Amino acid sequence: MPRTCPDKLNVLLLGGGGREHAIGWKLRQSPRLGELWVESSANAGLKQIGQVCPESIDAKNLFHTQKWCDRQSIDMIVVGPEAPLVDGLAEKLASDHRVVFGPSMAAARLEGDKSYAKEVMRQGAVATADGKTFTDAEHARSHVTARDEPCVVKAAGLAAGKGVVVCNDATEAVAAIDMIMEDRTFGEAGNSIVIEERLEGQELSVLALVDGHTISVLDPAQDHKQVGEGDTGPNTGGMGAYCPTPLATREVMDLVHSEILVPTIDGLRRDGIVYRGVLYAGLMLTAAGPKVLEFNCRFGDPECQPLMMRFKGDLAHVLWATATGTLIDTSIEFDPRHACCVVVCSEGYPGPYPKGVPITGIEEAIETAGTDEQVEVFHAGTTIDEKGRLVTSGGRVLGVTAMAEDLQRAQELANRAASCIKFEGAFHRRDIGHRVMGPLSNLSGA
Ligand code: AMP
Ligand code: GLY
Fold this sequence. Notes:
Elements: E1 9-14, H1 18-28, E2 33-38, H2 44-49, E3 51-52, H3 62-71, E4 76-79, H4 82-86, H5 89-93, E5 99-101, H6 105-112, H7 114-123, E6 131-134, H8 137-147, E7 151-155, E8 164-167, H9 170-182, E9 193-197, E10 202-211, E11 215-217, E12 222-223, E13 226-228, E14 232-235, E15 240-243, H10 250-270, E16 276-286, E17 289-296, H11 304-310, E18 311-312, H12 315-324, E19 333-334, E20 338-345, H13 362-366, E21 374-379, E22 382-384, E23 390-392, E24 396-404, H14 407-418, H15 434-437
Parallel strand pairs: 1-2, 1-4, 2-3, 4-5
Antiparallel strand pairs: 6-9, 7-8, 7-9, 10-11, 10-16, 12-15, 13-14, 15-20, 16-17, 18-19, 20-24, 21-24, 22-23
The structure holds adenosine monophosphate (AMP) and glycine.
Residues 129, 152, 154, 164, 166, 196, 198-199, 203, 225, 282, 293-294 line the site of adenosine monophosphate (AMP).
């Protein structure tokens, strides 16, 4: 693996969502960036900031991908989503003259296999919900029926963020077990399940860059997963996020560092696994302290959007340093202002929704920012149709992200900007950040 960061880096960015648009947007500001190639030919925002790679990049097309990367002198590949990492694409695409940002297959198992993650946590005495793994539906049903208490049923494998059911009692838990193990709603991801105690508290996302040894903890964020204001309705991929969050006091962050991140990385290292990439700890702040709900091996979406907005410095260099084990020489700084991302969604999301609906108002949204403020609109589910119009192509369409002096102003600005975005059936939550700012009555009516 090359170790000295080139003065000009040609980068290939994999993934096609709002997270990747935010990463690409920040990479574009790097003085070291040479060519930026993007994988997705669909996301209209990514297409504006990078050239579209003609190859389909997956483990099946490895030979052509490697050849193409060689021809284009790609110096660094940044992998946005988890699936290619869990499939081992990171080590397959790395070479003597190319680095890949993202953990190896063995390290990404921390996200790809929830029962493995539980085992790593158990060995490292990392606080997490008590849980048990089942490969047999009958045993799982007996377990929940015997207890009849609130619990959480999780498909152990990757299920695109949908494989978790929070249950109030045994009846709901049995229905979740049947959905995952008998109806096989998530396919092989449901071959085994983890059933765990239901924790109460505020959720917190702590993301860290890890280069194998050095752990650089990024500013903490909070995601809002439920579709409705006041945290009501079904879970989604994330309706908005803000950063930093006052929930993560210095004491909490110290605990997360020393009792969660360090023992997890050390535990992997003892098993011969070097973790290089982002380690995302999804936490519940319980009365007994922070406990891990899940680990992810990539940036959160939408947490990445406010994080990138506040990130100061040269992202290309920082990602390179993470991938090459040289993070210790690299300082990471964030803008002291607060960022709030509001996701504008298609009507019906997280259920079925229409596609191909024309979108307007992005320029107007960006222009709502006042002095010392900033608004960016990150594309997630958008594309350009055959008539050349910007149209919807997903449930989460745009991540309207505002940065301002405090969280209240960042939320107001993000809401005002989000209401400039017009497409039929568009909706967004107006209360991103409410868990630290008070109830909906504080809203400015945007
Ligand atoms: P996960 O994909 O494991 O983060 O789970 C998705 C969501 O389910 C989390 O963001 C929480 O809102 C909820 N959840 C997961 N595990 C638990 C748990 N043990 N107790 C309560 N809620 C949970
Ligand atoms: N925001 C939740 C996730 O990225 O998993």
